[in-house]
Design brief:
Mean pLDDT: 83
Strand content: 5-15%
Distance between the termini: 36 Å
Number of strands: 6
Low-confidence stretches: none
Structural class: alpha/beta
Strand order of the largest sheet: 3-2-1-4-5-6
Radius of gyration: 15 Å
Amino acid sequence: MILVTVGTQLPFDRLVKAVDAFAKELTKPVLAQIGKGTYTPENMKWIKNIDPADFDRIFREASVIVSHAGIGTVLTAKRFGKPIILVPRKAALGEHRNDHQLATVSQLIDRPGIYVAHDDSELKDYLLQDLSTPSREDPSDVGRTSLVNYLKGYLAAG
Protein backbone atom coordinates (compact mmCIF):
# COMPACT_ATOMS: atom_id res chain seq x y z
CA MET A 1 0.00 0.00 0.00
CA ILE A 2 1.07 3.57 -0.68
CA LEU A 3 0.33 5.96 2.18
CA VAL A 4 -0.13 9.63 1.36
CA THR A 5 -0.04 11.88 4.39
CA VAL A 6 -0.31 15.66 4.44
CA GLY A 7 -0.20 16.23 8.18
CA THR A 8 -2.98 17.64 10.30
CA GLN A 9 -2.25 21.37 10.41
CA LEU A 10 -2.63 22.60 6.82
CA PRO A 11 -4.42 21.39 3.70
CA PHE A 12 -2.31 20.15 0.78
CA ASP A 13 -4.80 19.59 -2.02
CA ARG A 14 -2.09 19.87 -4.72
CA LEU A 15 -0.44 16.69 -3.46
CA VAL A 16 -3.71 14.80 -2.96
CA LYS A 17 -4.97 15.76 -6.44
CA ALA A 18 -1.69 14.74 -8.05
CA VAL A 19 -1.70 11.24 -6.57
CA ASP A 20 -5.42 10.84 -7.19
CA ALA A 21 -4.93 11.74 -10.87
CA PHE A 22 -2.74 8.70 -11.53
CA ALA A 23 -3.76 6.35 -8.69
CA LYS A 24 -5.46 3.98 -11.16
CA GLU A 25 -2.15 3.50 -12.98
CA LEU A 26 -0.35 2.36 -9.84
CA THR A 27 0.08 -1.32 -9.03
CA LYS A 28 -0.47 -0.79 -5.30
CA PRO A 29 -3.57 0.53 -3.55
CA VAL A 30 -3.35 4.05 -2.14
CA LEU A 31 -4.64 5.39 1.16
CA ALA A 32 -4.54 9.16 1.58
CA GLN A 33 -4.78 11.07 4.83
CA ILE A 34 -6.07 14.39 3.45
CA GLY A 35 -6.31 16.47 6.63
CA LYS A 36 -8.04 19.82 6.23
CA GLY A 37 -8.08 19.68 2.43
CA THR A 38 -11.21 20.38 0.44
CA TYR A 39 -10.47 18.08 -2.51
CA THR A 40 -12.25 14.71 -2.34
CA PRO A 41 -10.25 11.92 -4.00
CA GLU A 42 -12.04 9.75 -6.54
CA ASN A 43 -9.43 7.10 -7.38
CA MET A 44 -8.03 6.14 -4.00
CA LYS A 45 -9.21 5.46 -0.47
CA TRP A 46 -8.96 8.42 1.84
CA ILE A 47 -9.53 9.56 5.37
CA LYS A 48 -9.43 13.07 6.85
CA ASN A 49 -7.20 12.13 9.77
CA ILE A 50 -5.72 8.86 10.95
CA ASP A 51 -6.34 8.14 14.60
CA PRO A 52 -3.01 8.30 16.45
CA ALA A 53 -3.61 4.78 17.77
CA ASP A 54 -3.80 3.48 14.18
CA PHE A 55 -1.04 5.60 12.65
CA ASP A 56 1.92 3.32 13.45
CA ARG A 57 0.05 0.23 12.23
CA ILE A 58 -0.89 1.89 8.93
CA PHE A 59 2.63 3.26 8.53
CA ARG A 60 4.07 -0.25 9.04
CA GLU A 61 1.69 -1.71 6.43
CA ALA A 62 2.68 0.84 3.80
CA SER A 63 5.39 0.00 1.29
CA VAL A 64 6.07 3.65 0.46
CA ILE A 65 5.14 6.98 2.03
CA VAL A 66 4.25 10.15 0.10
CA SER A 67 4.27 13.28 2.21
CA HIS A 68 4.74 16.98 2.55
CA ALA A 69 8.24 17.73 3.83
CA GLY A 70 7.23 17.48 7.47
CA ILE A 71 10.19 16.39 9.53
CA GLY A 72 8.06 14.26 11.87
CA THR A 73 6.96 12.12 8.92
CA VAL A 74 10.53 11.92 7.63
CA LEU A 75 11.76 10.65 10.99
CA THR A 76 8.87 8.17 11.25
CA ALA A 77 9.71 6.80 7.79
CA LYS A 78 13.31 6.35 8.91
CA ARG A 79 12.19 4.67 12.14
CA PHE A 80 10.10 2.13 10.21
CA GLY A 81 12.55 1.73 7.31
CA LYS A 82 10.11 3.05 4.69
CA PRO A 83 11.06 4.90 1.51
CA ILE A 84 9.51 8.35 1.47
CA ILE A 85 8.70 10.69 -1.39
CA LEU A 86 8.64 14.29 -0.24
CA VAL A 87 6.63 16.97 -2.04
CA PRO A 88 7.49 20.29 -0.43
CA ARG A 89 4.75 22.83 0.17
CA LYS A 90 5.32 26.12 -1.64
CA ALA A 91 4.60 29.53 -0.16
CA ALA A 92 3.99 31.01 -3.64
CA LEU A 93 1.03 28.61 -3.99
CA GLY A 94 -0.37 29.55 -0.57
CA GLU A 95 0.50 26.15 0.90
CA HIS A 96 2.59 27.54 3.76
CA ARG A 97 3.73 30.85 5.21
CA ASN A 98 7.30 30.45 3.89
CA ASP A 99 9.46 28.03 1.92
CA HIS A 100 11.08 26.21 4.83
CA GLN A 101 10.03 22.88 3.31
CA LEU A 102 12.15 23.65 0.24
CA ALA A 103 15.07 24.30 2.60
CA THR A 104 14.35 21.03 4.39
CA VAL A 105 14.34 18.92 1.20
CA SER A 106 17.56 20.57 0.05
CA GLN A 107 19.22 19.02 3.12
CA LEU A 108 17.58 15.62 2.64
CA ILE A 109 17.83 15.08 -1.11
CA ASP A 110 20.81 12.70 -1.11
CA ARG A 111 19.87 10.62 1.91
CA PRO A 112 19.09 6.92 1.36
CA GLY A 113 15.38 6.18 1.05
CA ILE A 114 14.38 9.84 0.64
CA TYR A 115 13.11 11.03 -2.74
CA VAL A 116 12.11 14.59 -3.55
CA ALA A 117 9.45 15.36 -6.16
CA HIS A 118 9.17 18.99 -7.20
CA ASP A 119 6.37 18.36 -9.69
CA ASP A 120 3.66 15.84 -10.62
CA SER A 121 5.82 14.15 -13.25
CA GLU A 122 8.64 13.42 -10.77
CA LEU A 123 6.10 12.18 -8.24
CA LYS A 124 4.52 9.79 -10.73
CA ASP A 125 7.92 8.52 -11.88
CA TYR A 126 8.92 7.71 -8.30
CA LEU A 127 5.62 5.95 -7.60
CA LEU A 128 6.07 3.74 -10.66
CA GLN A 129 9.53 2.62 -9.47
CA ASP A 130 10.62 0.13 -6.87
CA LEU A 131 12.23 2.52 -4.42
CA SER A 132 15.10 1.42 -2.22
CA THR A 133 14.28 1.09 1.44
CA PRO A 134 16.42 2.94 3.96
CA SER A 135 17.84 1.08 6.90
CA ARG A 136 15.81 1.25 10.06
CA GLU A 137 16.72 3.80 12.70
CA ASP A 138 19.97 3.09 14.46
CA PRO A 139 20.84 5.13 17.55
CA SER A 140 24.41 5.44 16.26
CA ASP A 141 23.20 6.63 12.83
CA VAL A 142 25.44 9.57 11.99
CA GLY A 143 23.06 10.70 9.21
CA ARG A 144 20.15 10.96 11.62
CA THR A 145 22.28 12.80 14.15
CA SER A 146 23.42 15.30 11.53
CA LEU A 147 19.81 15.77 10.36
CA VAL A 148 18.56 16.38 13.90
CA ASN A 149 21.40 18.84 14.55
CA TYR A 150 20.66 20.67 11.30
CA LEU A 151 16.98 20.95 12.20
CA LYS A 152 17.74 22.20 15.71
CA GLY A 153 19.92 24.95 14.22
CA TYR A 154 17.36 25.77 11.54
CA LEU A 155 14.52 26.03 14.04
CA ALA A 156 16.61 28.13 16.44
CA ALA A 157 17.46 30.57 13.65
CA GLY A 158 13.92 30.74 12.30
